[in-house]
Amino acid sequence: MKIGIIGSGNMGRSLGILWAEQGHEVFFGARTAEKGEAVAASAGHQTQGGSNDAAAMFGEVLLYTARGVNPTEVFSSISVLDSKILIDCNNQEIPENFAYPAITQSLVEKLAAEAPKARVVKAFNTMAQELFELAPDPLKDYNVSVFVAGDDEAAKQTVMQLAAEIGFQPIDCGELRHARLIEGTGDFIRLLMIQQEMGSTAAISVHTLPFAQTQRLGGRQPSALK
Ligand SMILES: NC(=O)c1ccc[n+]([C@@H]2O[C@H](COP(=O)([O-])OP(=O)(O)OC[C@H]3O[C@@H](n4cnc5c(N)ncnc54)[C@H](OP(=O)(O)O)[C@@H]3O)[C@@H](O)[C@H]2O)c1
């Protein structure tokens, strides 16, 4: 698969290298072509680098790492995103004292409104970049969840596959608007990592456990609660 990285900082560089290690063709984009080229040169794995425009034209799948930046400021024409799978891994800036406002529109819904012809998917925002160093081994032994939401089913399945290939456990979270919850989860894990000092390898794993063989607690009774 051809993958374009939009913004080759910590997230872009790490995920780009991981996907290149899996045999994908990766193009690192940046605000200056020189930076994109330099990231590709140090990444190896036959990756290429250049401008964000060039990365967007190259990729079938794009990773968008420019938090809160309208794509009209990133690309010379928004049409470079038409029909592309656009992964948004962004989280809001951490406010003072972790006093997060309620999320009524997620960053990715805003991005989807700004790039209406892109196939936008939310993913990779609920773990720290440091965790990627463990991918795919031994990461795959820890069942770390990647929450994936999007309105384009095929795009979502592609992103889930890309997550699984590098050792994560992808979880289909349904429609794009559910990203409000996923972004809130990204805020929550950073609260644990930073304020509660669990560190950057704190990770979220969702498991489905088997049902108990007995119902000694009486089982689930009808409830009047809505
Ligand atoms: N780091 C983590 O552990 C982590 C984990 C999960 C989610 N995230 C989220 O992922 C996003 C990226 O984080 P990061 O750690 O990769 O940050 P970063 O290292 O600072 O990289 C951010 C990238 O954004 C690009 N950028 C910034 N302003 C821009 C602008 N005005 N126009 C175009 N491009 C611009 C930069 O591109 P250039 O390459 O051109 O300089 C840079 O590569 C953030 O929203 C963050 O919350 C981060």
Order of helices and strands: EHEHEHEHEHEHEHEH
List the bound ligands: NADP nicotinamide-adenine-dinucleotide phosphate
Query: How are strands sequenced across the largest beta sheet?
Result: 3-2-1-4-5-6-7-8
- The fold-level CATH name is Rossmann fold
Specify Rg, calculated over alpha carbons: 19 Å
Low-confidence stretches: none
Q: Biggest sheet, open or closed, and with what strands and sense?
A: 8 strands, mixed
Structural class: alpha/beta
The CATH superfamily turns out to be NAD(P)-binding Rossmann-like Domain
Shape: globular
Q: Count of helical segments? A: 8
Helical proportion, percent range: 25-40%
Q: What is the CATH level 1 assignment?
A: Alpha Beta
What is the mean pLDDT? Answer: 97
Strand content: 15-25%
Name of the CATH architecture? 3-Layer(aba) Sandwich
Structure write-up:
The protein has one domain (2-195): NAD(P)-binding Rossmann-like Domain (Rossmann fold), CATH 3.40.50.720. Helix content is 34%, strand content 16%. It is built from eight helices and eight strands, in the order βαβαβαβαβαβαβαβα. Strands 3-2-1-4-5-6-7-8 form an eight-stranded mixed sheet, with helices on both faces. The longest helix is centred in the last third of the chain and has 17 residues, at 179-195. The radius of gyration is 19 Å and the shape is globular. The model has no long low-confidence stretch (mean pLDDT 97).
